[in-house]
From TrEMBL:
Keywords: Methyltransferase, S-adenosyl-L-methionine, Transferase, tRNA processing. GO terms for biological process: methylation; tRNA processing. This is tRNA (Uracil-5-)-methyltransferase. NCBIfam families: trmA_only. Belongs to the class I-like SAM-binding methyltransferase superfamily. RNA M5U methyltransferase family. The active site is at 325 (nucleophile), 325.
Amino acid sequence: MECSYFGKCGSCTLYALDYQAQVAHKKTAIKTLFEPLHVKEFTFFESACEHYRGRAEFRIWKEGEKIHYAMGAMDKKRAVCIDACPKVEERIDTLMPKLLKAIEGVDVLRERIFAIEFLSSSEHLLVTLIYHKPLDKAWEKEAKKLEEVFNIFVIGRSRGIKKVLSQDFIEERFALEAKSYRYHIIEGGFSQPNRTMNQTMIGWVLSHLESCEDLLELYCGYGNFTLPMAGKFNKVLATEISKTSIASALKNCELNDVSNITFLRLSAEELTSALNKERTFNRLAGMNLDDYAFSHVFVDPPRSGMDEKSLAFISRFENIIYISCNPQTLKRDLEVLCQNYTIEHFALFDQFPNTEHLESGVILKRH
């Protein structure tokens, strides 16, 4: 990937290395990090080097009547104005200068704007304009023109305000193992930025599922992994703390005609207490958790990894599938799990070329 802002913009820290050198660098770092756990082999999935990111946010920098996209500088002390970003998907990359010019030319769109977010899918492109001011009818009228001119969906946000002109979601479609999937993804909720690598991750998990009975999933989000995995199991119990994500997950079950998943709005800690029969929850009224015969547990925690109690809880299951966005906390958690489990498969997913970031997948089986 070539970018005129390498060395200035702080987003791409490995810009001095060509992509294969980056891959070698990341492999070496992971081998060194996990050497105490005797991890000698792993599968490394490479990404496209450019136009891979379907979700992106840019600050807006103002110079009089002119506005620019901006990113944090390499020294983390200032902003760098940019005109383009080759990391983002081509559809976003093409739109960025045209959209900025259109906003710049209309006072009500330009005034007090401070950020723009892009969310792309196979079907839609949604743009969120974020302001330090109330959004009135005049703003709505001009923002609606942006939707029509650029064939996009526009949302306006300011403190305590969310203006949805047409819709506040995108729909993603893809096929895995000869089956098609549809996803309803709400603006503001979490989604994997690298859509192609996301499909690779799901496919990797599916390829290693064996002896499946029932599945327990923690941190399920909008059902990104849940729906494809459901076809491998008798029943699935999936939990998530976000109301928005649970609503999307239920919608996605409907879109995909999946009926063997029960979604619960519980944190990992709350579910642990419920399954340990330490606490009761109104949200579990009418459910008998003893009806499940969990052969696998799937976890995809935040960067902080798993808390001590939840880590102890998942150690009761025969098979653990652990997706991690932070190798450091993954190593910490594996140091505990590997006392009773063997790492059967280990994979690295290069979600963000030109950065140190790596997504990991580990499948463990009890000794």
